[in-house]
Amino acid sequence: DSVQDNLYLQFLELSRVALDLESTAENCKLNWENFVVSVATCHLNLEKLKVACETTKRQSVEFDQLKEELKKNIALGEKEIVKLQSMLDEERVKRQNKEEYDSICSIVTKYPSRKESAAEIEELEQEIKKLEEESQELDDKMQLRAKQFHLVLFGIGELCKQFEIDPAVKEKASKKRKQTSSRGPSSKRRKL
After folding, report:
1. What is the average pLDDT value for the chain, to the nearest integer?
2. Residue (of 46, 17, 47, 20) closest to 33 by Cα position
């Protein structure tokens, strides 16, 4: 902008000089020298503008290249982030599985192995079988004792009936009891 302003001012000055008809030869020479300096300054300013324009164009191209390179790097970075995110998710799953495995292992180690459990189960089954056999034997014995006890009760019942039927036997038994009680303890000792 300042270069354009300078050019504009120089143009106005040249216009003023050209319009000044009353100037003398010395003034014209001075004006001519000023005009040549102004043109040289304008030419220098134009060269500066060309250099600035070319520099700007090169910077623009470099910026566009840098922009494209940054876009590529960003795209690669995003792909890398997605890849790393999936790896992170996989590692999280592996870690969670490992923690679950460790907790299951700690629970499993509290219990005996399959061989030990199978041996213990077999031992318990044999013990149950043995107890069932003993229980059966005891049931058989109880049934036998119940039958024997029933037979004894039946025999006692029959004896009681017999004593009730035969009054003479009853009298003899009561006399015999009286005799043994009158003799006292000494007679019992002799019999022993």
Report:
1. 81
2. 17
- Whole-angstrom Cα distance, residue 66 to residue 81? 22
CB 151 within 8 A of CB 141: no
Q: Do 38 and 14 form a contact (C-beta atoms < 8 A)?
A: yes
Q: Is residue 126 part of a domain?
A: yes
CB 10 within 8 A of CB 41: yes
Which residues, at least 6 apart from 10, have a Cβ–Cβ distance to it below 8 Å? 38, 41, 42
Q: How many domains does the chain have?
A: 1
The pTM of the whole model exceeds 0.85? no
Please report which confidence band the pLDDT of residue 43 belongs to, taking 50, 70 and 90 as the band edges. Answer: confident
Whether the predicted pLDDT of 85 surpasses 60: yes
Handedness of CA 163, 164, 169, 172 (dihedral sign): positive
| Residue 133: inside a domain | yes
> Pick the residue with more confidence: 42 or 66?
66
Q: Is there a domain that residue 7 lies in?
A: no
Domain coverage including residue 140: 122-163
What tokens were used for 22?
């009353």
Select from 12, 10, 2 the least CA-distant residue to 34. Answer: 10
